[in-house]
C-alpha cells in the first residue's frame, strides 16, 4: 500500500503542492499524513509521521515529494530512513527518483541508515565544535602578512590617495595581499 507523507516548512514546500504530487503519484488522499513545521517544537515528535508509522505494515511504501521532507536536518532524515528500513517499509522520493524497490535506491537508503548509526556514535557532545577549537589556543597556519598597525597605515595611505602598488611596496607585501586584507577589514 502507498502511504504519503508531507511536511510543510517554508513557502517553497507547501502542503498543497506536496499533496498534489503525492496524489499524482498514486497515493490515495485518505492515506496522506502531514505535519506543519511551525506547529512542531523540538520537544514534540511529528504527529503526522507517527500516525503513518502506526498505520504502516511491512511491505508498505512511504512516498514523499522529496527526501528532505523526511526531517528537518540531515541526521533526522537519515534516522527516519533507517527507521523505515528496520520496519521493512519501503521509501519512494519523487523529486530524487529514489525507490527502495530498485536495487540502487535500496542501496542509497542503506547508506543513509548507516550514516544515521554513525551519527549516533559520533554524537555532538563528543565532537569538538568550531568555537571550542578556537578557544584552545593560538591558531594553526601561516601568520597574517599585515598586523593591525600596518593595516591602519595602509588605510591611511589609501585615504590620502596613494595607489595600491605604492602602498604594497611600502609595506613589503603583494598587491593581492593588500587588496585581500583591506577587503576583509571592510567586510568585518
Automatic annotation (TrEMBL):
Pfam families with a match to the protein in the record: HTH_7, Resolvase
GO annotation (BP), single: DNA integration
Domain Resolvase/invertase-type recombinase catalytic: 1-145
Gene3D superfamilies: Homeodomain-like, Resolvase, N-terminal catalytic domain
Keywords for this protein: DNA integration, DNA recombination, DNA-binding
SMART domains according to UniProt: Resolvase
Keyword set includes DNA-binding: yes
Region (Disordered) residue spans: 123-146
GO molecular function, one term: DNA binding
Family: Belongs to the site-specific recombinase resolvase family.
Identification of the protein by name: Recombinase family protein
Organism for this UniProt entry: Gordonia aquimaris
